[in-house]
What does this fold into?
Amino acid sequence: MPLLRIALLTLLLAAPARAAEVTVFAAASLKTALDQIAADWQAASGQDVVVSYGGSAALARQIIQAAPVDIYISAAPEWMDAVEAAGLLQGGTRTDLLGNRLVLVAHGPGRVPVSLDETLNLAALLEGGRLAMGLVDAVPAGQYGKAALVSLGLWDGVKDRTAQSENVRIALQLVALGEAPLGIVYASDAVAEPRVSVIATFPETSYPPIRYPAALLSDNVAAVAFFAYLSSPDTRKVFARQGFLPLGAP
It folds into this structure.
């Protein structure tokens, strides 16, 4: 058994049994990777992990309204900032856990790539359909997507042709199901969905750096251990395979 798992089990067994369950609120784009990580940790520790996924803004509002949560992982710093300003973080635990990239996806596998710059006629590529993306005023993927389109001079041509959703995984499903011909999602979302093709990657200079801050919101012993596990070499490999960019020291 890896040394980290032995250490986690030792910590859990040595501490008073305060809570056998860890409650995590996490950005929807983390679902595929975090589901696997939670299952691996449960198998190693015997402790249950319950993860609620959603838009980072909606989750932050629930936390501020006193939802019982042990760990929060946001897809953008501003929503973690809001939770921190409310005095709800365990001091010194906030960390930038992951990075990501922004991509343009199309319905169906094997689609032809396009050059994503100011010369692209994105509206024509929609062929009368809509561009799926997160809510541009609240959902981080939508905010990053709008920023990228504005930077490339493409926003005005499609702003009235968007299908905006409450989280990025809904936008991904709209494209996967053929309800929208194109969508703006994270690279990690595209990895998780075989029914879409990445036809372009947005220039990293066209949007702010994508960061996923994570923090503890309780002193639940099991949550403290699981939070440490999120930065372990094992989990970094899972995140990397799913298209994320693990940050910080392993």
Summary: Confidence is low (pLDDT under 50) at residues 1-19.
